[in-house]
Amino acid sequence: MDLHLLLLFAVAFTAAVAVPGPNVAFAVAQALKHGLKTTLPGAFGFGLATAVHATVVLSGVGLLIHDNRWILTYLRWVGAIYLAYLAFSAFFAKSGSSNAEAENSSPKKMFVDSFLVSLTNPKGWLASLLTYPSFISPNVSYTTQAIALSLTAMVISLSIYGGYMFLAHKARAAFDNTSALNKITGVIYAVVALCLVLLPY
């Protein structure tokens, strides 16, 4: 793998992931509502989704998505509906239901939720379609480059989303009111759902 290209890819991919978007907002909302210990596996969910994005794009299947944008539209609506459901549940949750929510919000669920939200985010797919092919060198083994780029992207995703979750967890300490936390996370989920539907990608 050309180390110069790999470094440039790392910079470009970090910039793409670090810019606040639906995935970042979802990670922050989860950490605010459930705390770092429960939510941190969600970072691995984002990492796995990154691996799926890379596999699809680098295997050539990404060309199918590029030529059939309706697939992204379908994913966008699936993600928006799911996030709207989470927003409704959080916004109208009773303040005394925190124990029940804690039982239903296992690390496994955080992992699955983050994975699904990332897979239904068109921004992630488009960023992958635009980024990976640009850093492939014709002079080096394609398989080696694909593996190197995929692993680099996964590490970056884990670090960035884990970092956002950590910061949100620190901010969570400022809220003693469970009802207020539910309202805030509900609003964040709703905003993310609207972004998926309304913002062009």
Automatic annotation (TrEMBL):
It is a multi-pass membrane protein. GO terms for molecular function: amino acid transmembrane transporter activity. The keyword Cell membrane applies. The keyword Membrane applies. It comes from the Bacteria. One of its GO terms (cellular component) is plasma membrane. Keywords: Cell membrane, Membrane, Transmembrane, Transmembrane helix. The chain crosses the membrane at residues 43-65, 74-93, 147-168, 180-199. InterPro entries: LeuE-type. It is found in: Cell membrane. PANTHER family: ARGININE EXPORTER PROTEIN ARGO (PTHR30086), ARGININE EXPORTER PROTEIN ARGO-RELATED (PTHR30086:SF20). This is Amino acid permease.
